[in-house]
Design goal:
It contains twelve helices and 17 strands. The protein is α+β, with helices and mostly antiparallel strands. The two termini are 31 Å apart. Bound molecules: glyoxylic acid and manganese (II) ion (2 copies). Glyoxylic acid binds next to loops.
Length: 406
């Protein structure tokens, strides 16, 4: 087993669910312990570590011309409930391994190379994805962040302070020329590289995500005594909305429209009680912004119709509705050349999943390096990329960083 695989295995134990599943939610003890583990490894090789007000962690290898904009790489280590051990983590620990490799060559970069651990790419705790990179790019302002609440009703600010992050939220946003370029290594999370028997994917586009929160209020009551004609069942309205979510995505003109009701809760959750309330979180994305926005509009329209028909009160919150990202052509070319130079087979591809690079790309020339995911599986405990596949990703990243930072 190579070093990074061992480190990923150790990291996977910082989890609130049993191995091999991984659950690592923002600002929990597991998240904090995993961050400490990462910081320790960075300091071991002499990187200068800085942690911002929300826990975005920067580990800098100073270049010979530190006044120049740095080259960034990195990803996230938070993990959604009952997921796997490679999503995000390969980009963080792979970035570290790439720096170690470059250091072993006695190479010294001209531009500083900075490894970033982004806070909460996953939307688990505050429903919004890419929290860290969203704030770095100014797409989530401190005022908006202060309004975020978790499922238990705790405010973002109280929770981050309790986790030990006390700095000024205004300092999270990066200035315009902070990075000369940003390159994120990540698992593909889909089947295309494996299917085509390719080593490396270079990302030229990232699909546009959006998230809707739908709250329904009907009328509760006795499951035996309230007869069917007079019911206002919020649970059934939610179920109908869930069906509409699937249908709208399937009927879209774009084959890249995908929509998922990943959270659907009802209250009071008693077998002999009519659901009075329902809560849905809906994820809707597309590579094409027109068809994504059309699907969103159709869905809002259907929710209104369903609720009207069933006499249900409802609210819809569009939590985020992001544009797709276009990667930097030159950087895509540089990464592709690096992979090919190492003898790896490559393809330029779109990322259907979102990543912190979605927000980095709004500010800096950005691309991503993908490695294959076994059976295209991700967000599941059986997510897997082999040591050899990870190594090829690390080598490609190292060579790209070297090229861009020299
Ligand atoms: C990232 O985890 C995504 O949901 O695309
Ligand atoms: Mn993920
Ligand atoms: Mn990820």
């Amino acid at each position: 087993m190579n070093r990074i695989h061992q480190e990923l295995d150790t990291l996977a134990r910082f989890s609130s669910s049993e191995f091999p599943s991984v659950t690592r939610v923002l600002y929990t003890q597991e998240d904090l312990d995993a961050r400490d583990y990462f910081i320790g490894l960075c300091e071991e090789i002499g990187l200068k570590v800085r942690v911002d007000a929300i826990g975005n962690t920067y580990a800098r290898w100073e270049g010979t011309a530190p006044e120049l904009a740095a080259v960034g790489t990195g990803s996230h280590i938070d993990a959604i409930p009952l997921s796997g051990q490679y999503d995000g983590t390969v980009g963080v620990f792979g970035g570290l391994e790439a720096i170690r490799y470059l250091k072993s060559l006695d190479y010294k970069p001209k531009r500083s190379i900075e490894l970033v651990l982004f806070t909460a790419e996953e939307p688990t705790r505050f429903a919004i994805g890419c929290l860290g990179s969203r704030m770095m790019s100014g797409q989530l302002t401190p005022e908006q962040a202060l309004k975020l609440k978790d499922k238990e009703g705790g405010f973002f600010n109280d929770i981050r302070e309790a986790a030990g992050f006390n700095g000024d939220l205004n300092d999270v946003k990066l200035f315009e020329d902070y990075y000369h370029a940003f390159i994120e290594l990540h698992i593909e999370q889909g089947p295309r590289l494996e299917k085509d028997n390719l080593d490396i994917g270079i990302v030229d586009k990232i699909a546009a995500p959006s998230t809707l929160i739908v709250k329904l209020i009907g009328e509760g009551g006795h499951a035996g005594a309230v007869l069917m004609p007079i019911r206002k069942d919020a649970g059934v309205a939610g179920a109908e909305i869930m069906m509409a979510v699937e249908r709208i995505a399937k009927d879209s003109k774009s084959e890249d429209t995908v929509a998922t009701t990943g959270i659907f809760d009802i209250l009071p959750r008693a077998v002999n009680s009519i659901p009075k309330e329902a809560y849905l979180e809906i994820d809707l994305r597309d590579t094409n912004i027109e068809t994504r926005d059309k699907a969103l509009a159709d869905l809002k329209h259907e929710i209104a119709e369903i609720c009207e028909k069933r006499h249900i009160k409802y609210s819809i919150e569009l939590l985020n509705c992001d544009p797709p990202a276009t990667c930097d052509e030159n950087l895509v070319h540089t990464a592709e050349k690096a992979a090919k130079g190492l003898g790896y087979s490559t393809k330029v591809m779109t990322s259907h999943a979102y990543h912190d690079s979605l927000f980095m790309a709004q500010m800096f020339p950005t691309t991503m390096i993908f490695i294959p995911s076994k059976d295209g599986v991700s967000h599941r405990p059986d997510e897997y990329s082999s040591p050899e596949e990870i190594d090829k990703g690390v080598q490609t990243l190292a060579l790209t960083l070297k090229e861009v930072a020299s």
